[in-house]
Structure prediction request, 523 residues.
Amino acid sequence: MGIYVNPGNEEFKRAANSKIYVDKTMLLAFTNQNLKSEHQNICVSRPRRFGKSMAANMLVAYYGKGDDSYELFEPFKFAKDPDFKKHLNQYNAIHLNMQQFLGRTESVEDMMELISRKVVRELKREFPQVTYYEEDLVSVLEEIYSQTRSYFVFVIDEWDCIFRVNPMDAQAQKKYLNFLRDLLKNQPYCVLAYMTGILPIKKYGEHSALNMFDEYSMTNQRELAEFTGFTEAEVQELCRQYDMPYDKTKQWYDGYDLKGVQIYNPRSVVMSMLGHDYDSYWTKTETYEALKKYIQMNQYGLKELTTRLIAGEHIPVNPDKFQNDMTTFASADDVLTLLIHLGYLTYDFYAQTVCIPNQEVQKEFINCIEDGGWEPVMAAIRQSEDLMEATLRGDEEYVAQQIQRVHEDNISILKYNDENSLACVLSLAYYAAKKTHEIYRELAGGKGFADLVFVPRKHVESPAMIVELKWDQSAQTALDQIREKKYDKTLKGYHGSMLLVGINYRKAEKTYTCRIETETINE
Prediction:
C-alpha cells in the first residue's frame, strides 16, 4: 500500500464516519457500467465544496487493492447492487491530487517530473517481479501490464488546477494536457479514468488533447446530476434529523437546477445543520476573487447583466463557445458560463438561461458590488425595505416616487426605455421582499401572465402581492387587468390578504404613478 498507488480506504472512511454523511455510493454503479468500455474516461467538473474529493476517495476505496473495503461499504446502498463484490478491490488504483503536486513545484515540467518519479517508485515497490527498461511513468505502466496483465483505475482530483493557478501560461497548459493524454488515452492498462475539477476540459482549436473523455459539467451533468450535491429528499431528511426548517434551508442553499434535478450546496447544508444557523459557508478562495473580478468588469454589458441577475432575472446564455479557462473571453456568454462552473450561477438546460441560485450566492454578489461604481444599485437595495413597507401601508405616492428614483439612478446601467429594464427596476426596487416572499416574474395564471407575483414564505405574516406594470396607460388600467384576467389564480393554495399594485410609466415625462388596493382570498 502506497501514498499514490493503492493508498487504501482511510480517506473515504473518514468521510463516512463524519457527523453527516449522505450516501452517494450508487455512483459506483455508474462507473462499474463504464469499466473497460468506450466510456471509461469520465471528467466530472463542479464547484468547490460540492463533494468532488469525497467521490474520488470513494472510488479509490472501492476499486483499489490497498485495503479490504467490504465492511466499509456494507452499510451503504451500493452494497445491495449485484455487481458490488465483482469489482470490489480488484484493481490497482492510482490516486493523484494535482493541486498538491503543483504546490510543491515551480513549473509544470517540475510537476510532471515529480508525479512520474513518485508514482514510478511506488509501482516498482508494488511490482518487484517486473523487469523495467525505461524509467518514465507510461513506460513503467506498459511493462507492468505487458508482464502481469494488471489493470489500473486512475482517479485524478483537481485536474484543472493549472488552468486556475497559471491561467496565462498556455504552453504549460498544453504540456500538461499532453501528459494526461499520453498517460490515459488508448492505454490497455487503464480500465477507468475518473477526473474531477472545477472547469471542464480545456479546448484548443477544434480538438482537445483529452477528447476521449465523457464530460459531466454544471451545464449538463447528465446521468450524474443526483451525485453533484445533495438532493431535495436528502436535505429534507437532514432537516428532519437536525430539527431545521426545510423551507429556509431551501431558500439559502437550493437552486442548482440540473436538467430538472434540484441540487443543494452540500458543504453549506452540512455546516448549516451542524451549526443550527444559516450563513454563507463558501470559503472565499480564488473562485470568489474570480466572481469579484468579472462582475466588476463592464465589458460586454456585464454591469447591466449583473444588475438584472441581482434583481432576480433569468438571462439567456450560450455556454457552448466557452473555452474552459479563466482568461479566454469573447463575449458576456463566456463570463456567465465561467460563473456557472464556479457555482455562482445556475444554468437551465432547457430554457438556456442563467440566474443566481439561492440566498447564499446572492449574498456573495452583494458583497462584490458594495463599492466600485455600483452605488445606485446598492442604494436601491438599501431603500427596498422602505419601499416594501410603503407598499404594505398603501402609500401610493411614495411608492411611485421611490420606483422613479431607482429608475433614474440606474439610467447609466439599464436601458432607460426598455420594457425588460422597467421590470428589472421593479424587481430591484423590491429587493428586500426576497427575504419574506418568493418572487415570480411573468407567472402564468388566470387568463395570462402576471408581471410580478409575491408569495409569502411559510411562517411569514405578510400579504401576497400581484404587481402589474403598464406603459403610457394608467395605474388604474393595470389594476383592472389584474382583476379582469384573474391573476389571483397564480396564488394557488394561498388564502389571506392580497395587495393589488398597479404601476404605470409615462415615457414622455419619465414618471411613474401607482394605485394600491387590498383584497382577501378566502380559503
Observations:
- The chain has a mean pLDDT of 91.
- Residues 375-521 form a domain with the Trna Endonuclease; Chain: A, domain 1 fold (CATH 3.40.1350).
- The chain has three domains: 10-216, 220-369, 375-521.
- Residues 209 and 441 are 43 Å apart (CA to CA).
